Known about the structure:
The complex is a heterodimer of chains A (368) and B (288). Chain A is of the alpha+beta class. Chain A contains ten helices and 18 strands. Chain A has three domains: 21-88, Dna Ligase, domain 1, CATH 3.30.1490.20; 92-210, 2-Layer Sandwich (D-amino Acid Aminotransferase, Chain A, domain 1), CATH 3.30.470.20; 221-367, 3-Layer(aba) Sandwich (Rossmann fold), CATH 3.40.50. In chain B, the strands form two sheets. Chain B has a seven-stranded mixed β-sheet with strand order 3-4-2-1-5-6-7, with helices on both faces. Chain B has a seven-stranded mixed β-sheet with strand order 9-8-11-10-12-13-14, with helices on both faces. Chains A and B meet through helix 6 of A and helix 4 and helix 5 of B.
Amino acid sequence: MNLYEYQAKELFRKYSIPVPAGKHIESPSNLQWDKFPVVVKAQVLVGGRGKAGGIKFANDHKELLDKTKEILSMTIKGLKVNSVYLEEKLDISKEYYVSITLDRSKRRPIIMATTSGGVEIEDVPDEKIVKYWIDPVIGYSNFIGKDISFKLKLPDNEAKQFQAILAGMASLYNDYDAELVEINPLVVTKDGSIIAGDAKIVIDSDSLFRHKDIPENAAERTELEEIAYKRGYSLVELDGNIGVIANGAGLTMATLDGLTLKGGKPRNFLDLGGSDDVEKVVGAFEILKIAKPKGILINIFGGVTHCDTVAKGIIEAKKRVGIDVPIVVRLSGVNEDEGRKILSDNGIHSYGDMMDAINEIVKEVNKL
Amino acid sequence: MSIFVDENTRIVVQGITGHQGSFNTLQMIKFGSRIVAGVTPGKAGTEVHGVKVFNTLSDAMSEQPNATFISVPAPYVLDAAKEALYNGLDIIYILTEKVPYQDTMKIVNMAKKYGKTVVGPNGPGITSPFKSKLGIMPNQIFKKGNVGVISRSGTLTYEIVDQVTRAGFGESTVIGLGGDPVTGLNYIDVLEKFKNDDETEAVVLVGEIGGTAEEEAAEFIKDKFNKPVVSYITGRSAPKGKRMGHAGAIITRGKGTAESKISALESAGVKVAAYPYEVPTLLKEVLK
C-alpha cells in the first residue's frame, strides 16, 4: 500500500529524518503559511505529478491561495486531487538518492544509494549506484552506513548526516513492514545540510494488522475493486466484457490469458480463493452483476473448493441475483460429477475442459 | 528416488485442530503420508484422525518428526517457524497466506543458516506420489511417473498435473513454491534436486508474472541443467502495477512481465506452452 507524501514525511519526522517545514491542507479556506517562496504539491498516489502540473510555486499569500485552489480542482491520471502539501522551498546544491527495498531474488532488503539523484533510479547507470544487501538475521547496523558513505565518497560533514538518515530509514523499514522507503531527491542544501526532498513509502498490505496507526488508502482501488475488497474478494477490474469467476490466482490468470488469446475480452479477475462455501459463490455473482458483463465464465478446478458447492452456488445465484447474460461453466476436479449433475438437472450445460468453456463463452458473447 | 519428501518423511502438523489442519491431516493420511504428531497449545492428550496432539512442538519431538506442516494464522507464523527451527526439523512447509513478507524473509534467512528447507508460504506444498504428501494438493490427480513439476501456484498446478496425468504421464515430485514475493524454495533450488534425481526425466516449470525467478531459472537451465524442460507462464494479459491475487504476482516498474519470462525460457531451449493443455503435447515431444 502506497502512502501519500504527507504521510511518509510524518513518519520521517518520527524517525528524525530531516524534512523541509511542511503542512497538509485539505481545503483552501484555512490557509496559514508564512515561509515564502513555498511549494504546493498535489497529494496523489501516482508518479509524474510534476509533469502533470501538480507541483507549483507561490511567492505570496494571494498566489498560494490561487495555486492551492487550482491544484485541488485537478484530476491527475484519473485520480482526483483531494489535498495538497505545502512545503518550504529548499536551496538546493546537490541531489542524491537513497532507498531500501526488497530484492526478491536474494530474499533480502537491498539498499541503493547514488550521488546522481533527482532522476528516476532506473535512468542512473549501474556503476554509479552503490548496492548493499542487509542480512535480515543480523539486521541493519551502523557499519553498513559507514561502508556506503565511503563508497559514495561523501565528505565528512555529509557522511555523518547521511548515516543518521539511513539508520532512520532502516528502522522505519523494519518497524512498519515497508516494501519501499525511498528518498529522491535527497537534497544537500547550499549550507551543507542533508534533507529529504521527497518521500516515498510502500507498506506491505499483509502487515496492516500490526500497524493500526496507518489508515488504509482506498484510493488505489477502483469503485468495483473497493466493493469486492470490502466483501472479502480478490478482484481486479479490467476493461473487457466477459465476467470471470475462477479459483486460485494462477488458474484465474490462466483463464484471462486463454480468453484473451481466443479473442475474448475479460471484464475482471476474480479469485474465489480457498473456500468451499455456497454463499461465497453467490456473492461473487452479486459483484459481477454490478460490473455489467455481457457473459460470465466460471472456471473451477476443485480442490479445497468442491465442484458441487460451486454448482449449488450458481443455481442459488440464478434464483437470487438475477443474471440475464449467458453463463458458461467449467467444473473439474473434486466432486466434478456431482457438480455437473446438479447443473444439468437445472438445465445448465457445463464443461469438463477449460478450453471448451473458453471457446463457448467467446462465441456466445461475440454473437450478441 | 524423489525429492524433498518420501516414505521416510515423518510429519508433525502445527495447528492440527484448526479447520485446515484437521482436514489436510486426513487427506495426507489417505495419500499415504506418515503423520506422527500434531501441535495445538492446550489440546494435549486429544487426537485428530488418530494422530496424537501435543501442547508444544518440543513435546511432539518424542514422535521424531523431521518435517512440519504449519497452518497457523499469519501473525503467528514467524513464531511457529522459529519453534520448528529450534527443534531441528529439516523441512518447514507453511500453508498460511498473507504472511508479512519481512517475517518470511527472517524465516528463510534463518533456515538457510541452519541448513534447513522452507516451502511456501502461500503454496500447496510438496507431493511425491505415492510416498508422501506434505501439503494440500488434491490426492486424485496424481500418478507415479518421471515428470517433475515446479510451480508458484496452487490450483493452476493441479490443472496442469491433471492434464499431465490424463495424457498418460506420471509425476516424480510436484512442488508449489508459493505465491508470495519471498518464498523458501525457488526454481533453482528445486532444479538442482531434480538434476540428480534418477526418477525425474523431464521437468514442467509453471511460472507467472512478478519478480525475475523464471528468468534466473532460464539462465540455470541454459548453463547447468541436463534434462528437458517445458513451461507454461501465466499473466500475459495482466495489467501493469496490479496484484493478480498472489502478493508476488505484480509487474513493478516494467519488471516481471510474462513476455520477459517466456523469451528468457525460450532462449534457454525451453518449450513454452500457450495454453495449459499444450503442456502434455510438449512433454511428448521432449520425452520421445
